[in-house]
Amino acid sequence: MTEPMTEPMTEPMTEPTTAPGAPAPVTDPVPVTPPGRWAAELDRRAPAAMEVPAGRVVVVAAHPDDETLGAAGYLRAVHAAGGSVSLVVATDGEAAFPASGPDAQAALATARRAELDAALTALGLPAASVTWLGLPDSGLAEHEDALVEALREPLREADLVLAPWVEDPHPDHAAAGRAADRAAPVRTHRFGYPIWMWPWLSPDDPVVPWSTATGFALDDAARQAKADAIARFTTQLAPAPDGGPPILPPEVLEHFAGDLELFFRVPSERSAPADRFAELYAADPDPWQTRDSWYEQRKRAVVAACLPRAHYRHIAEPGCGTGQLTKVLAARADRLSASDYTEAAVEATRAALHDARGPRASAAGDARGPQAPLCDARGPRAPADGDARGPQAPLSDARGPRAPAAGDARGPRASGVAVVRAALPEAASLPHGVDLVMLSEVLYYLAPEAIDAVTERVVEVLEPDGDLVLVHWRGWPAEAPQDAEATHARVLADPRFRTLVEHRDEEFLLHVLRLR
């Protein structure tokens, strides 16, 4: 780890602040937050468990040792689970001691590279790939765009990217976190790991994003391996060359000796892009196994059972996907307006309705627009025998073991079924005069302001006492700006709706609302 400020400091645990009325920054001591305060808060909050994938994990570090301090136990577990681990280190950490001259800094850079190799060996990861970028230490913020470009290729095929937390109180860490978020593909799960948060901030600091926190528990063997790996960074543990305190004094190291590593999910700030969904359908005509997975069959049955009315005059179903729920809804309505942004999904729904021997779905009104896609994409397909993992599996896009196909609809009864290409909140996706709007696995792919726009459109088109159904998987798709809980909470806060039904289980969240 490099000294945690860009300006030279006389003590490793200080930060510049501006005193009231002072003409220039002054340096005040920063007390180390006791580890016990964090431990108590972690016990109280019990963050969801961080899933260990058997895929490609890429760790971005601002300096050699960041990855070990923040994620050593987790990386060890990924390797044990059969996943691949690779590192991208932005700087050599040569400016850890700012008063050192060029020769001393060059020697320190060489030493720190060797320390990282030794630490990976101690973790049982001697074959982990390490890419060294050689950007200036204590200057990443000024080279953030260059870092973004350098990260694009290493992150291109990653399933999961770990990078320093973007709010970590070290400018290099924050810059590395921002750059990784910008460079990572939209389909990639992104998490930040804190370093200087532990000693410098407190658990009640409003900047700590507890709502996105996940934790990975370390057993005794993992804790010992992590301690052994940290011990390899001798340049950071020994006193400074001028006799000053080490970068990592004992009171700081104590924060990294606990039994939990903490990660903060980095959600997308924008609605999921159209090309992501087209890409998924191009790879597989049923990307989420909607026809035969038990998760999908059970969800459809629960949704159908929770509809308050036996029959509706006009149902709107944006994000119809492959049309499996559309068939169920068609049997409960006089008229059904289904839509999806992706052409492949529209064609799949029309075929599903035709196969159900109902009325031929109309191709009329093929509306198109620039809004975000609304098919229910949830990431790569899971293995056919994957276990359902529930809400504490933030990296899994699987929703239960595959089951034999079962007919859960008897064929459309609606006198008029139209399937069009449209995006929320376009008029074609939510036509006027509907008495039921079905939003299944679509809304969490929209940015918060887009959710608000959809809510307004629903209120505009829904008849008095009409119903709105929200149902979403309780995991968190990589492309989604928020999870099911946050998505539903945003709509539930609208006083124009009252709740009729709430169903919550380990796999999905369901609300049926009625317009007041």
TrEMBL record:
Residues 1-37, 356-412 are annotated as: Disordered. The keyword Transmembrane does not apply. Keywords: Zinc. Residues 1-21, 396-412 have a biased composition (Low complexity). Residues 22-34 have a biased composition (Pro residues). This is LmbE family N-acetylglucosaminyl deacetylase.
